[in-house]
Amino acid sequence: MWFYDPAGQRFGIPTYPFGFGPDGLLTRRQLRDKGLRPGGQTVAAQLMWRRGQRVAYLYRIDLAKPKRTATTAQLAALDKANRAKRVCPVCDRLKPYQIPRRLGACHDCTPEVP
């Protein structure tokens, strides 16, 4: 196994082949699925596959922090921004879809587009 280097002598940090990561280490996506984030910690190890073309960094679970949640003000700002994308600038009506930027108006206010 070319990518098996748990001491980190060949690649600088401990490296494992895809699917052989040790217990206690997870990728960012795996941390996210568990409701965690790396929280500023450094990379503990890496997974490599496809002749070294693909790499996934591993982080320690015990140093991971809980994911941050958006505040009510942030959620309100997002809601306001998304609502603005659905208001037609021509007829000033709220549509159930985002107004296409290439058209500049809702489908009712735009002549047929080829």
Give keywords.
114 residues, alpha+beta, 2 domains, 4-stranded mixed sheet, 2 helices, 17% helix, 18% strand
Layout of SSEs?
Elements: E1 15-17, E2 25-26, H1 28-33, E3 36-37, E4 45-49, E5 54-60, E6 65-66, H2 72-84
Parallel strand pairs: 1-4
Antiparallel strand pairs: 2-5, 3-6, 4-5
Explain the overall architecture.
The chain has helices at residues 28-33, 72-84, and strands at 15-17, 25-26, 36-37, 45-49, 54-60, 65-66. The protein has 114 residues and is of the alpha+beta class. Helix content is 17%, strand content 18%. The chain is elongated and about 65 Å long. The protein folds into two domains: 15-66, no CATH class; 69-109, no CATH class.
Q: Give the overall shape.
A: elongated
Order of helices and strands: EEHEEEEH
Helix/strand structural class? alpha+beta
Radius of gyration: 23 Å
Low-confidence stretches: none
* Helix run count: 2
Tell me the strand order in the biggest sheet: 1-4-5-2
Question: What fraction strand?
Answer: 15-25%
CA(first)-CA(last) distance: 55 Å
How much is the average pLDDT? 91
Number of strands: 6
Helix content, binned percent:
10-25%
**Number of folding domains?**
2
Main sheet summary: 4 strands, mixed
